[in-house]
Amino acid sequence: MTTTTKPRFALKLGRSYAALLVLMVVIGAWLAFDFVQERDRLTADAARLAVHKSQLLSRSFGDTFLAADYVLRDVLGRIDTRQDLVFPQPNVESTKRLTALLKEKVNTLSGVKTLVVLSPDCIFTATASGTLTGIQSKQRFCKDAKVHPGQGVHIQYMPADQSAGGEAVVLMSRTLGSADGRLLGGVMAVIDVAFAQRWISELDIERNDVMAIVDTDGTLLARNPELPVAMGQRTSTPDGQPHFNEIVGSVFFTMPSPIDGRMRINGLSKLHRFPFVAIVGLDRESILQSWTYRAWQFAIGFVVLSVLAVLALRAHLQALRQREAMRQLATTDALTGIANRRQLMDIGEREFARARRYGHPLSVLMVDIDKFKSINDGWGHPTGDRVIQELARLLMALARHQDVGGRLGGEEFAVILPVTDAGGAKVIAERLRVAVEKTDTVRVDDGAVVAFTVSIGVVALGTDEKTFDAMLQRADKALYQAKQNGRNRVVMAA
Asked: Which residue has better confidence, 373 or 21?
């Protein structure tokens, strides 16, 4: 049956906005997923680069220790353990020979302040500078008094307050142990931490990036850019990552710096054979700067396009709404909200053609309010309008979903009943007549019920019917007959 299209249009409007919302969400999610993947790719590439740079840094820094170890092996091989490792040294010639040997060797090494020969008690028996003899070393193996049998290497960071020279240094010792692990003596290279700092400071890095050397205890030995307050301080790896002394080969992780708080992608590589770790930290913000800029561009562009899309859809729907309103004005009766005469005739002609084509039955009801003029004269035109509206409501309530009701004009209505024969049409007409007769909905200001009745003419499609208008004329004649027969009745057309 014909109803107002406003709810359907509101549903269409809601579906349009929902479809646009879903589309924008899908596009936004796809863009976000793509950007996240690109960010992850950039981060992974930066991690590989950080590891690669840390490996280069570890090899370069390790060259100093490799050269020092080679010299220590050479010196240790030239020492007479029975005569040279004694303090105080009774043999002056032995002292001169050791001092000259150490001075000659230290001049071949970059970053090594001095070379020292150690007695079994870890006492400086000879130095390259010829000074500081007689001092006992504070290295860990000296306190333990135990070393590996044969030759062994010991490397330890010594802060300035514990160093014999009063400066922070790294001590690299090659010791000689007996079969039962007693220290027989050794040779020590004193490596200047300041040299490591000068060396690493000369390396070019990007702004906010970091290079650093730490020992396996996490003590910071050198850093670029230089940060004096942090030198000699201990740092640690984040939770879930191996500690510095557990690192084998290379690792990487992302964490905020405990020194300046910047988020960095860190590559760490342990020096081969030596207890040091080279760190290269690439500033994550700088790496993702271009990505962040493009992400903001896309985000702003997406928001702008979304707003424009909503505005365009809104304008389009506004045009549809206006067109729908114009269609409603053209096809709907303003007083009752049901089909007007033009719409009713269009639908009737289509149903007439369909019934003829497929051989289906078709019936039409012509309905008129009895003595409507007296209602207007007695109760006023507003009351008459409410009577018309009540009839339209009852007509729509009793009609089936395939039926079409409309107002022909004034107090006259018609109902098109597709696939309905004369008997079925008469039953529907009688139900409508009774419902109108019993209604008490229309009331005046004092509460009095305005009772009214209708007369109905019923016509079924005849075999010789040529047009829908012809059916209406026969229905109108039946309606006239119902009026003549006393009103408030249903009359079938001949």
From this structure: 373
